[in-house]
Specification:
heterodimer; A: 284 residues; alpha/beta; Rossmann fold; 10-stranded mixed β-sheet; 26% strand; B: 226 residues; mainly alpha; Methane Monooxygenase Hydroxylase, Chain G, domain 1
Chain lengths: 284, 226
């Protein structure tokens, strides 16, 4: 009998996204184990273990107070800046302890950039915003080229190339956010952390940021916190669902990781009832 | 709690069950028409199919709206998809009933042969039972009951083969042969209704487990066709 002439490999290729085993074959950028974060003795997040893989978008979702923002801040030691914050457990970054004694937090934040909910450009020109990091770090090579490259990568170049000397605060909210992304890219990071990067933006600007994430993950590893579940469904390869546990004695609330899996799995057949309840809107 | 989404899902599912009840009336109609060779009843069944089609169109529209406005995920999304697929199976059953009614009308002047009519009525009743089971299994999310449809379908397939064998015996009687060949198509229509009921059972399993799998796969069935 002749082999069927229908190319089933191609059919499969078109119809699916990245599956978990494919993602897990990629190099681990972060390997978190049993991470607990507390502020002034109160546990905010407890016992999180997960890996983040190279050239993927990983989303953290969950209700308010679940610790997802606390968690993303552990990836570039932003919690160091909060008095009374204590981080226990390990976060390995390319196999090295991110919280090791001889780790340079400034170097960490160069390699692991962050973009925040509210666009926060400096009150300087568009050019100077992007050039700021490379200048401070004394990075070699043409600054003009570096600025243009970063603005290109952030899909902002065409809109601003004729007014690079104009003030950044004159840009629209969506443009300002892309400028912040360009600013993060200018110092050649490895990872970009995004904490609610589109929640202050209109739907069209949101779409541009989401498109950008799909583009950027070819070269960078992206971790995003989002309140918008559909955004996680649209952009992320892996999704982690965090939830809140209220202490029985009423002493407080702490965040926990409930489920971490391929985004497709989380939004079609989540394994945990709490995840199902959250993504279908029956809780929170 | 998404109250509006839940209300729309409940409504969608109730609409599907109703469409199923309506197609059951068509199936019972053709069984009676076959048994009594009632041409008028055949016309009624044919006209009644508009009801089934209307229900299907309404469900399809409703599914489109729920997807567009509520973006259901996880088990909600599976319910919407399962209803959409199952509603189409119900609509197809209605079409099979129309074909049976038309064939019954077309061959009524040729005289009937009781053995075959009895086999067809038997097939029809088995199909009606299967449709009932498929609707109940869907409503109660009973995967075991849904899987049992496969065994019921085997009986329908067997009856289908019996009709074929019976008609082979008419080879020397031209009029009986013409009638009999029409009845082979009638049997084939019932056999398809049984398959559609199994398909609804597969949707129930998908709804509950999140995995779609055919209960049987004709393209990998080791048994010979007849």
């Amino acid at each position: 009998m002749e082999a069927p002439r229908i190319d089933s490999g191609r059919i499969a290729e078109v119809s699916r996204g990245l599956d978990r085993s494919e993602i897990e074959r990629r190099e681990k950028v972060f390997s978190v184990s049993d991470l607990t974060v507390s502020y002034s003795g109160k546990t905010a997040l407890e016992g999180v273990t997960l890996d983040v893989h190279e050239n993927t978008v990983t989303a953290f979702i969950g209700p308010s107070g679940c610790g997802k923002s606390t968690f993303i801040r552990c990836f570039n030691r932003m919690n160091d800046l909060i008095p009374g914050a204590r981080v226990a457990g390990t976060v390995l970054y390319h196999g090295e302890d991110l919280y090791g004694r001889d780790v340079d937090a400034v170097e960490i934040r160069r390699r692991i950039g962050m973009v925040f909910q509210k666009p926060n450009p400096f009150p300087k020109s568009i050019y100077d915003n992007v050039a700021f990091g490379p200048r401070v770090l004394g990075m070699k090579g043409s600054l003009d080229e570096r600025v243009e490259g970063a603005l290109q990568s952030a899909a902002l170049w065409d809109e601003v190339k004729d007014r690079l000397k104009d003030g950044a605060l004159g840009l629209s909210g969506g443009q300002q956010q892309r400028l912040c992304i360009a600013r993060a890219l200018a110092v050649e990071p490895d990872v970009i952390l995004m904490d609610e990067p589109a929640s202050a933006l209109d739907p069209i600007s949101t779409t541009r940021i989401e498109d950008l994430m799909h583009e950027l993950k070819r070269e960078y590893t992206i971790v995003i916190v989002t309140h918008n579940m559909q955004q996680a469904a649209r952009v992320a390869d892996m999704t982690a669902f965090f939830s809140v546990v209220v202490e029985e004695d009423g002493s407080g609330r702490r965040g926990i990781l409930v489920e971490y899996d391929a985004t497709t799995k989380i939004f079609t057949t989540p394994a945990d009832k709490r995840t199902e309840d959250y993504v279908t809107g029956r809780f929170g | 709690m998404r109250i509006e989404l839940q209300a729309e899902l409940d409504d969608l599912e109730a609409g599907f069950q109703e469409a199923g009840e309506i197609v059951l009336r068509s199936i019972r109609g053709v069984i009676d028409a076959l048994r009594t060779q009632d041409v008028e009843l055949c016309d009624e069944v044919i006209a009644f199919d508009d009801e089934v089609d209307e229900r299907y169109k309404a469900l399809e529209k409703q599914v489109e709206m729920v997807l567009a406005r509520q973006t259901p995920v996880a088990s909600d999304l599976r319910l919407v998809l399962a209803v959409l697929h199952s509603a189409l199976h119900v609509e197809r059953m209605g079409d099979q009933c129309v074909t049976i009614a038309k064939l019954t009308k077309l061959s009524s002047h040729l005289g009937t042969r009781q053995a075959v009519v009895e086999s067809l009525v038997d097939m029809g009743e088995r199909c009606a039972e299967m449709v009932k089971v498929s609707l109940a299994a869907f409503a109660t999310r009973d995967v075991e009951q849904a899987r049992a449809l496969h065994a019921l379908d085997e009986l329908v397939d067997r009856a289908n083969r019996q009709v074929f064998q019976e008609v082979l015996g008419y080879v020397n009687d031209a009029e009986a042969l013409e009638w009999g060949m029409r009845q082979i198509t009638v049997a084939r229509c019932f056999e398809r209704i049984g398959d559609n009921a199994v398909d609804i059972g597969e949707q129930t399993a998908f709804l509950v487990t999140g995995e779609f799998a055919e209960f049987t796969d004709a393209s990998h069935d080791p048994r010979p066709l007849s």
